[in-house]
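Sorry, can you check?
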Amino acid sequence: MKRFLILLAFFIPLTIVAQNITIAGNVSSDIESLPSVNIIEKGTTNGVVSDFNGNYTITVKQNATLVFSFLGYETKEIAIQGKKKINVILKEDTSFLNEIVVEGFAGVVGQARRRAESIQSIPESVVTMTATEIENAGITNLQSFSAQVPNVNFNTSQNVGVNFVTVRGIPQIRNGEAPISFVIDGVTVPDSNLLNQELFDLAMVEVVKGPQGALYGKNAIAGAINIVTKKPTNSFRNKVNIGYASGNTIKGQGAFSGPIVKDKVYYRVSGSYKKSDGLFYNITNETVPDYFDDYSARGQLYFNVTDDFKITLSGQYNNINGGGLYYHIPANGASTVDPNEIDDVVATSDVLGKAFLKNLFAFAKLEYDFENMKLQSVTSYNKAERNGSGDLDHSAAPILLQDQDSNSEVFNQEFRLSSKDTSSKISWDLGAFYQRNERYLRTLAQADFGFFAPPFAPTGTFSDLGVSDFTNTYNTIALFGFLDYKLSDKVTLSFGLRYDNDQIEQVNPALGSEDSKNDSEVQPKFSISYAPYKDVLLFANYGRGYRVGGFNAQKTTIFDREYQAETSDNYELGFKSSWWNNRFILNIAAFYTSLNNQQQYGLQLAPPNIILGNYNYNRSNIKGFEVDMKLRASKYLDIIASYGAVDASIKEAGSAGDTDRTPFNGVRTPFVPQDSFNISLQSNVPVSESVSLRGILNLKGTGEILWHEELPDLKSPRYNLLDLRFGASFNKNLDITLWGANILDEKYAQEFYSSQSIGGPGQDLIWLGNPATYGVELSYKF
């Protein structure tokens, strides 16, 4: 620890007093904030780009003039004249409609390294979508976002809050930690139950691939997902959105922002409501099992206390109720089904499953600007309650029932000190982090034992079959630092380091036991980038990732009492480029990852008990590559395409419980698509000064998936989903959109659970993706 603190101290550069001044502000139009605006110190090459909320920070000489330019808007010059804050409103350039010159893609700013930066200038594999792109593409949750990203697969299953995200060959495990860090407005949300919440009023969403432990801490073993909401504004801006879709689905969203005290206190209130009767059908009880209603509300207050001191308060509440456990089984009564032939599977449960998820998320962010650095304190609290109940045998017979609670309560505190001189060759961050995460899991299985003894008939009385009831508590302390150093105009070195220490405790009333252990990991990250030309970047990086271990409910023959922390070593080579005046963007990355103690989920069917748990593979390897491309073929046509391929396999399976897993050496890692691609044709055609039309045709392909290492032939085939959106905009504030998702009505499995994998009776269970759906939306800004 002492050596780590000494090493961390080298991150602190000497503070040099210079004749420079740091300017901050916001750029907007008359209607909304403008991201990706170029802000240049006149007469120099010193410049920045406004972020996803239109905010910018730039360090310039004290007598400088700033030049603000953005595609389709009039350029504006402003002399700073000693001011530290400059807010700018740009006016539309009406002559732009008649220009025949085809402009390139505007620079996109992300937050991959916990600060606003152009994604084309950093040595990371990043996919970022701005507010306009989110709205045009119809992004409503992380599942619809992941459809745009190669080597990222996001599925849901079982109940509200049961998610399976796979990034670059590293899958999520049931009742375990996600392989990515989930961050909202710079605050880590550690509960994976919340990953697929309804997204609304967003400024940006992005995924950073590869281990990001140095920047995001534990569990960012495969990357991070950043969500940035729109911020309170100093002028009144409002928006409402309503929609109707298949399954008698209705939705309404609204966002309202403005000043309470002009230039001092701003507010933003937003909310979302979505209700559906469902899309599937249960032939036994003649119900629609996938019904739901989902409402969320978010409130934010921004206090501009002084030019140097800012406070942001934010709170969000989610309440989701719906059906659950609507697995499909073979219609012909067989116990197994070919994954290539799932057209005849049906939902037959005799019990209508029910599920709910309630969540409260709140944080307070305090920011103070010193002369050459910024101090930030973020305090957050998150409480989630989740329950799912219903059938366990998933047949028409009243044999088995299940009920599960999965709750969490988390407190975070982070302090971060950062440089803010954008003209300096050195940028850096230092910080400390504390988290207390208390997670409760109760699983109950019940059976009508009349089916298991003469006369083998139901009695109507259910008795407990298996119970687990425990609380895992994680106390985490972390120290971190990051340094970016420009050796020259062409070469930049980056170094990050984070130390996480996790004290893990379990209280297990069912066993009458209390256990504890300690996991810790140093997570370094090294990068070097070389820009041989202005719009070309070559980079190489190494990063270590860490996913915390834990305790199972009990030891079984297939897993032990505890499972170990998982670590990864990732090596990556990348190429980023912009050509043809930014009309053609091509990014390529290749990676190799070595995993130690990769975590996996297991289910032990040992009558009269059904026990859930996790175990480890000793060693796994992953190799793969990704290609992202954007082409502005004409003024009115963009072609966006991406492809990613992954080869993930178990090298040393080891053993767990009383089971020798060495026969699985060399088998592919379960739940990992072999490859994925996305092709999108997008068009935006101005008809007049007040009317424009837009359309998006998007094809997403997902490769073959192995579902269990014990069954190497149990693989789902490739499936392709075709989506279509067409819309019209009037006067920049009224939008009408028609859309269709999976319009070819492809039938595909999001989860395939084989009865053979648990060595017991029953039938294969298939969780289907949504069939073809269609809808219409109307939005209005004022």
The radius of gyration is 27 Å. The CA atoms of residues 202 and 229 lie 4 Å apart. Helices lie at 2-9, 131-137, 142-146, 213-216.
